[in-house]
């Protein structure tokens, strides 16, 4: 696991907790500096250099608690000159004795406080090393071009709860174009993975790895023998089709089987991933929820549990994001009781910058209709309804909106028809300049959000029946 300090979602407290637990577990820890040659040389650090992270300590001083990192320079050609360095006045004889750091130590070892560590280093790496008693399975999964992966893995613990480390790896960038991958020349694909518990209804999220342009992404989880799990690779690959590898390491035996993913499984996986973000990235309004899962890109999901129609406008500014719907700006309306994946925006290369410049949503209209209306000659407005039926190809008219104004459902439209105002309102709206007649259709119409994929179903609720200029 690589922790980059410059990421938007970087959390120093979370990194410290990860380093402490990893050090206690005996994992291999390293850290590295970036370019900034002049700045780092002034304080005794080598630019673009890897260091060994030997230990982490939390000590008590006269000023309070201090988080210290014990670092070793393998080359030992220069020494840290800042706070808590070898000749620093921060040290007391008691602390030197406790941390075994004599004043004349010249083995390339030094200590650094957490704030300085974040300033002068760029990232740290945690390599989880386990003994030979752990089980391991590796399975190849395809990452197709221009569509979402449709192959996953079923996971099942055997007999007892097992700790599991799962990773998804693609050919590294430096290996592409070489002997083994001479057909690959593109940047790394943005990918991640989701693990679902398929025994719950609907399937629930167990673990997820954020979508990143990385050679390897991964997560850890616990698998219980009474449950069934499904691993779903996440990717929107704009380059050539390639083969990735899933590695499953577990403390106890785990059965791993290849599975073809149907549309529903893929849909559940992307929806669960969208909901796996921070609580601050979720917005709620009158029973409707908007989830924005931010990693190196973003995945946006709208879920409408209210009685009204949820209207959402999104605009994302970036020159290096790949949009699942082909556009950076979207406008959608979600019916009560439905959810929709509004946008998947993934970087085409590592380090891409973007911003969600506009996010507006509201409950637009409340469904007051009590049923569907027949377009047969009986009832009302045959001429108008015949035209509506011919335009839409539908046999029923659930609701009608004119110029954005709700005219009602079955009962309301019957009253309008009886009073003679229905045809008048529709005809005046169609004839008026720049006004539209919009009908709400309660019919599930599949529209792929990802090119070539049928994993997502858009539910167009409002159909434009005509515009007069």
TrEMBL record:
Residues 1-130 form the Calpain catalytic domain. InterPro entries: Calpain_cysteine_protease (IPR022684), Glutaredoxin_subgr (IPR014025), Papain-like_cys_pep_sf (IPR038765), Peptidase_C2_calpain_cat (IPR001300), Thioredoxin-like_sf (IPR036249). Signal peptide: none annotated. This is CAPN15 protein. One of its GO terms (biological process) is proteolysis. PROSITE patterns: CALPAIN_CAT (PS50203), GLUTAREDOXIN_2 (PS51354). It comes from Symbiodinium necroappetens. The active site is at residues 49, 73. GO terms for molecular function: calcium-dependent cysteine-type endopeptidase activity. SUPFAM superfamilies: Cysteine proteinases (SSF54001), Thioredoxin-like (SSF52833). Keywords: Hydrolase, Protease, Thiol protease. Belongs to the peptidase C2 family. Transmembrane segments: none annotated. The keyword Protease applies. Gene3D superfamilies: Cysteine proteinases, Glutaredoxin.
